[in-house]
Design goal:
By secondary structure, the protein is of the alpha/beta class. The protein contains 3 helices and 4 strands; from the N terminus they run αβαββαβ. A 4-stranded parallel sheet has the order 3-2-1-4, with helices on both faces. The chain is globular.
């Protein structure tokens, strides 16, 4: 799917929700540029020094994805906020 189509689709989809990204800085910056201030962007990482955590509306430190409790660590973050889309690391 062309980038413009993805951007337009996400723009319309994200007008009603917030986003949590477990991907890197480039991914977070691309989302913020595409959607502007229409939604809040959250991010999580296992390191407080992760560059993506410095650019989002709210940041969370979570377990590494290899850890058995990763999902259990991530779910309360999503459930306590109106998170409508989770973008995983690739």
């Amino acid at each position: 799917m062309p980038l413009l189509s993805v951007t337009l689709y996400l723009h319309s989809l994200l007008m009603i929700m917030n986003l949590i990204a477990t991907c890197g800085l480039t991914c977070v910056e691309a989302f913020k540029e595409a959607i502007g201030d229409q939604i809040r962007v959250f991010a999580c990482d296992s390191s407080a020094e992760a560059p993506a955590l410095q650019t989002v509306d709210e940041a969370f430190i979570v377990l590494r994805i290899e850890h058995g409790g990763y999902v259990d660590n991530l779910l309360p973050i999503c459930n306590d906020r109106p998170i409508g889309l989770q973008v995983p690391a690739l």
